[in-house]
Amino acid sequence: MSTDVFTLRTPVPVSADALFAWHARPAAFFRLVPPWEQVTPVAVKGPFGNGQTVTVRTPIFGPIQKTWTAELYDVEPGRRFRDRQLHGPFAAWNHTHEMIPDGPDRSTLEDHVEYRVPLGLLGHALGAGGVRHRLSALFAYRHALTESDLRRHAQFHDRPRLRVMITGARGLIGADLSLFLAAGGHEVVRLTRGAVAPSSFDDGTTTVTWNPDAPDPALFEGVDAVVHLAGDSLAAGRWDDAKKARILESRTGPTRRLAEAIAKSGRPKVFVCASAVGFYGDRGDEELDESSRRGTGFLADVCEEWEAATEPAGRAGARVVNTRFGVVLSPKNGALAKQLPAFRAGGGAVLGAGTQWLSWVSIGDVVGALHHALMTEALAGPVNVVTPFPVTNREFGRVLARVLSRPYLLTVPAPALRVLFGEMADSALLASTRVVPRRLAETGFQFDYPRLEDALRFVLGRLN
Length: 464
Known about the structure:
By secondary structure, the protein is α/β, with parallel strands linked by helices.
């Protein structure tokens, strides 16, 4: 049975040594898992180098999963490493990761895979095309992400690495930010409310328990920055009075107490705190930037109080950045994940009139913007974390349906949305908020995916 071969090369704006070092950090392995792949880490045995084994559970067809164990060998620091399948879904698998020097600050990443599908000729006839398509999507994603991450880190190569504490570090944004920073050589401490569960794998971060009702200022000893992302989900449940109280308190209470603890400790010097473009309220077609007045409504009230809760840290001398997130696009969680089942089934629908503006941003650009906020001394106060190109609800659905090759024919009237979701319908689904990222632009931030179709194709593995 012949062996199939897959090869992909991509130029990277760092040296071969830096490219190898990035791959050798534990976080890089987890960083490279595409968001559409339901890969579950099982165990990592040994440090990076010859003989290290990695075991994961990976889907092979629909809900069917298989355990895959790979072993590293032929590791040559600064140049290459290889992995081979010990047991798993392939009849054979050998993968060479090559770092080819192109100068002092340039290199080429080459992934070369030699593999055989199971079941011999029958398996090749039935599955070889699908396997190659899946590998093409996988490695296109991995190479684009590797180039982006290393380019972003290289922009601040002359700055010392930071010790960063993150709350909400297991959430949609926090999980990706933690891995991005750790793979880039920063020290990441995840703050968690509950007991730390033992793990059989090392992702390059550490976890510390904290009490958000009474944060200990001693936590911040040696810490350079805190990124505060924790808060009760907006989308979980109808907005009755009790739910609205939880939304508000989960943001303002812990934020204020965290800011006060930072002020008492004298560290860290940077406090990045989540907020949202809900600050601006329902504003129709008006273009909004960080200088725009606050809007009206429940979300605007929450965001104003949330941002005000960071003031104790600012008064004590910390540089405070209030990141006003738009709708964050990822198939793992959030608004896009909730819409995907309907759109994949051909039931995607316009919400209400469909003319309301949606200010969105890809998960990769959110992570990049948070890194930019950590490293850019000139950035403080409110910062809109949204693409420069918002779209209407109707256009968002049209593009998503096109990316998924599905029809887009339905409409859910506004009254039906209000029956289904109550107050959340007007505040989150029907509100029109057309926001632009003026402060990010002024401080030189570059978006990887400013256009909606490119962003969706990247996070969904539908690259052309």
